Amino acid sequence: MTDTVAPVLEESITIQAPPDRVWSLVSDLGRMSRWSPQVVKTFVRGRPIGLGTTMVNINRRGVLVWPTRTRVVRFEPREEVAFRVKDNFTIWSFRLTHDGAGGTLLTQRREAPDGISDISHKLTDRLLGGVAAFQVELGDGMRQTLARIKAEAEG
């Protein structure tokens, strides 16, 4: 069962590095714990990463720790990688666009075209301060993630 369709969350950043460099980072999904303030560890099943690759993420917020199971649902080399979270139905993606000046516009997006699972919605309300507050927190986390990727790509 699903709740209503959740709003799309999206953040972008311009990185002064060529798309191939940025792609080498974001397509290695095992690195998520280096960038995301919520992901503690990612276990990737199968390499190289491509369409159908599965992962388990261990997420943390304060004393709360929870796993999520994901599968890569879109994989276009040097353009986009997207994975669907089995537990809540959301799709997270990174999309790369040439900025026209030798750099890369990197966009992180969270969409929920099939809505959010009822269990995820209820747990978010009870344990994470409510859906609206958690969406603000996710947006903050996306900006932190993109800034950390930028620092690594430009470093």
Automatic annotation (TrEMBL):
Pfam families: Polyketide_cyc2. Transmembrane segments: none annotated. Gene3D superfamilies: 3.30.530.20. It comes from Nocardioides piscis. This is SRPBCC family protein.
